[in-house]
Amino acid sequence: MTEAHRRKRLDIEDIETIIENFQSGTHEEYMAARAALIAHDMYSVPYLLELLTKRGEEHTALIARTTTTLRDIGRSASMPLLAALRTEDEVLQHRIVSALEKLGDRRALPALVALTEDPHASESIQQSAWAAIDRIQQRMRTPIELQSASEEYVTLARLYLREETDHVGHVLGDHTEIWGWEPEADTVGQSLTLEFVPSYISYQVRGTRMALTGLRLEPANPHLQGLLIALIGREMAHLERYSKEGKYPEHRLYAEKRLEHLAPAYTRIANLYGCGALASGLREVMATHDPHASVRIIQSLSMAPAPDPDSGEALCAALDYEHANVRLQAALAILQSFPEGEICSPEKTIRIFKKTLELEDPVEELPEHRDIVRNILEITTKQAPFIQNYPLDKLEPALVSALDNYDDDQELQHLIIRHLTAFGTEGALTPMSAIAADETAQETLRVQACRAIEAILTRKHEPPGDYVEQIAEALYNALQSEVRDIQREAAAALNALMIGPENMLSITDIEIQKTRLLTPDDMLDMDENIKLEDKRD
After folding, report:
1. At a CB cut-off of 8 Å and minimum separation 6, what does 537 contact?
2. What value does the mean pLDDT take over residues 497-511?
3. With a threshold of 0.85, does the pTM exceed it?
4. I want to staple 21 with a disulfide (CB 3.0 to 4.6 A). Which of 29, 120, 132, 322 is the partner?
């Protein structure tokens, strides 16, 4: 539906005359009015709703006309009618239920089941609701086993989350209608409120309302809590995309504003419901194949206190997800939350890190690749004192390669060397030696490289065999630096190399020989210079 078409349907000209003719005893006037109301689709519902409030036997035919017209408007009439079902007018409730029965919309089932469970609802209302439920089930292609109202809301919220259009309807145009109920309004028609949301978030907004309605019936329902988190997470993912890539400026502005209010609300809800709901939400959103929303929930899980086995199982499932960034974020969250490797294979987690580090350039799957690499290194080094079971040494080849891949990024180079200082083995000695000896390298990098060599050699407790001469030469070159910190760390690394007293003496000899003594010629030159200075004076 185009916006112009929507506006034409929304603005019903001469509605008073149309409603008057709809009640006419003249068949032609009634049929013309009926056709006009159907043409205006769901926007006619508030006016037809007013007719459903009429009392008395003389209005029996009018009520029948109205419910039949609502049926012929089609499924789009369901949402305003479901909003109006919140009325406290029992007669109106009966008639709305009758109209919903004629529409046969599967989306009405949760609200109808809720009526059958409501201890305050009359027996008559409950019977009407059961009749409508039976009729709707009969019209469904695949009969379903009816559940409690809260579980029916679980089913419906999940259908909205997954955007199952066969069940929850298609979205047309740039905006979608969201109907509400304001009981304090002067008339029934005015109580039915209407808002518009961009179509790209309409399923999530409606699903969120379904989840909230279900939670009012059963506040502790873990599936509804998880669905609420998943729905908000998906909506935020859509908003983030449209705030940057929206076709029109107003779309981008709307996305920015809504995201500004929704982001803190999501954080508070995630903190409120905790790990169990986040784990449930992660499973739900991964089933939608939405990597951006999945990453958001994984990051919330990684920051949640007291992770439990359920959240660990959800994160383990994410290690096999189809999108690389989801796998990576799950691995990072597992390392943070379960540093002893008790939840799932530590080797699998490390393999994901290794594969990520080996990527040389940003790719479509990981657009912020350098930030991701930085995150891996920060978390693995920060967790170092607690990690026992993760084979971090298997990252070494990828880290050594990364030194070349990110030679233009000093921060990443520092992080890589710090990591190798903590976990490096003999395989890291050669690249560390090259950096230590490189006079063009940043001074702090050379210092770090010397420290890394010392740390690796100290852990090894024996000379590195074939590499000893090469490493000794590199450290000796570093020792020639005029920077005191480089000299000190190079000397410490040479000591850790255990090159032996003879080699130490050889180095000392060289250093002493570089301290040139004065020759007789030097003395004569000095004497001549002194005489020249005296003459000038």
Report:
1. none
2. 50
3. no
4. 29
